[in-house]
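Exercise 7 asks you to align residues with tokens for two separate proteins.
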Amino acid sequence: EPVGSSPSVVFEDIQRCSPKCFCMLLENISDLVVNEDFTVEVIPEGNVAVATFLKSIDTEEFVKRCLQNKRVKEFKMTARLLELTQSIKAENIPDGVSRDYITVYFENVRNGGGPVSDVQLFPEENSAIITFCDPKGNT
């Protein structure tokens, strides 16, 4: 996989395209199959969708092809790689939750986690900053 490339691509301003149409459009551009080669998560409140590739592809090249695509231009959508980060902020943490509990929770692979190197708790704002040993997509 190319260095610095993320398996996820963020699409913004997708409101002019239905989720079904969006998935077909991505299949046409990528020559891949939705739910087999990639997954799509639509976040309607933000007019955003995230395509995550299960198959290793050159996502930078895919973003270029999307931005040059006639339909993508007609729908006035934008596409960019999802930045990888090593830290995420967790909010709405219940009172009294320990640093150990948060560490174990975010190391759980079923929760999409991985090895945690640091947890900073901010009890007054019910939040924490979790830093992973490996970069994670900040989803």
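Second protein for Exercise 7:
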Amino acid sequence: EESIKLVWEANILYWSKALLNMTYNYIHHCISESTDPPPFKIPILCFIVAGLVVAYSHHLGGPTGPHAPKPGSTSAMYLAKELIRFDNGPDGISGSDLKKFTKFIHNSNPNPFPKPGEYRYEMAEFLAFTQHIQYSNTNGQVYISDYQGKSPWIQS
């Protein structure tokens, strides 16, 4: 049962990355078609890098019995995730601000949590924009509904 959940989580992460990539492709297309650059900074976001690690049983002389793993069968599965370090960002964000967890948008409310004028409001607005692009470009089939995380670095 745990292996099935890990496969689901890895698959969700895969599709989330694809949706975010689709969003940035749309942004880059719009910028390339425009005569002027955007009058605002575009955040550079990403999902963590992760992958499934599968261990296989290969000991022919190993344990025996009805519950012993058969040679060549999966004996364990893990979801390996990248280690995220928190240093000062290039735009001067301090380490303590980078470590601050923020719930930008929750799946039960389409409105961004930071309010206008509050710290990270522009990021929350950008995330709401990505949801709109994802929903629109998939004909209403899917969008990332629960955005949360730590401060990303901003493109100059």
